[in-house]
Fold this sequence. Notes:
The chain is mainly α. It has helices at 2-25, 28-33, 45-68, 74-95, 99-122.
Amino acid sequence: MNLVLWIVAGLLAAVFLFAGGNKLFVSRERLAAAPGGAWVNGFTPGAVKALGAVEVLGAVGLVLPAALGIAPVLVPLAAVGLGVIMIGAAIVTFRLNEAKHAVLNLAYLALIAFVALGRFAFAPFA
């Protein structure tokens, strides 16, 4: 179980690092032009950058505390934080009638919930 949690957390960290990095470094216009990027039009540029920063921090929080052995309780807390972001993302994409992206967000949410539950209850760091 521990190995599976590490793998899922690592993959999620890569996904959120990439997504957050894009929000931080790609222009708002290019984000809006991308498939599923219509949500950007409903947010200020600062809000998009802040969301990107939070996603990058969440990605780091999924792996780094446990890898370094410093406050590994932050791993499930980072997962919970990213889960809140994905709930919001699913709601926004659903309201924009982008069902495929809403389902993708819910799939990420399920994986994040798996990591959070696994690290809180089934395989916490000792």
